Amino acid sequence: MIFDEEVANNYDRWFQTPQGRYINRREKDLILNLVAPRRGERLLDVGCGTGEHLVLFQNSGCNVTGIDPSAPMLAVARQKLGHKVELYKGKAEDLPFSDNEFDIVTMILSLEFTDDPEKAISEAIRVCRGRVFLGVLNKSSATALQRRIRGLFHPTIYKTARFYHVVELTRLIRSFLPGVRIRWGSVIFLPTGWYGFAVPLEEALPVMNNPLGAFLGLSFPVNF
Fold it and tell me: What is the C-alpha radius of gyration for the chain, rounded to an integer number of angstroms?
């Protein structure tokens, strides 16, 4: 299993590093901008991992639910969130929820690791009555190339990940929802090692409709 206990703990510790904190904040700013969560909304995070984004949405007033195929990841999420949040072990391609059950469904850095991305997006749309957010690794970024090269020489979870381009994802979404309006943007434009000195340059670049950031986010309604 890719996401074993060691990966789960290392992934969570990365958020505590200076670089991890900065990148995490930039990604979360984009997520909140595109998702626009409202207090009291029901939110499902598919591939919730260690619960980092469940905490973000819970702090925004949402009633959150998470699902992930990795028991070690869910164990870390449970430590963060306690027993007041519903966490399920399961796959994105077969969600154990009713049609239109959630106001918001998110998939953040999880679509890359699904066996069937088309089915995963279809399931996200099925259980949603409001809007869906996809946050993915962008193949058109400097960081994507950096990660691919690193994977040639060192073990990394990104070696098996599928990276995406905004055009590819837009086409896939509209195969289910023809004509849907998609809001999108990206962040983290520079190689990750630059963030000790190049923060002003990062924050000077436009975010919305920019296809070059390492983290790409797309938001769309399921009823329009």
Answer: 17
156's CB contacts (< 8 A; 6+ apart) are: 147, 150
All residues at 6 or more sequence positions from 73 whose CB lies less than 8 Å from its CB, including other chains: 3, 8, 11, 48, 49, 50
Residue 132's Cβ-count burial label (10 Å; 0-12, 13-18, 19+) is buried
- The pLDDT, as a whole number, for residue 2 is 62
φ/ψ of 35, rounded to 5, equals -85, -40
How much is the pTM? 0.90
Q: Check pLDDT > 80 for residue 128.
A: yes
Residue with tokens 């259980």: 127
Strand partners, 187: 215
H-only helix segments in 44-197: 52-59, 71-81, 117-126, 142-151, 166-176
Reduced to 3 states, what is the DSSP secondary structure of residue 168?
A: helix
> What is the b/e burial string over 110-122, where b = at least 16 CB atoms within 10 angstroms of the residue's CB?
bbbbbeebeebbb
**Residue 69, CA distances (Å) to 2, 50, 76 in order:** 10, 11, 13
How far apart, in whole angstroms, are the C-alpha atoms of residue 1 and residue 24?
25
Output the pLDDT for position 1.
45
Q: Is the pLDDT of residue 43 over 90?
A: yes
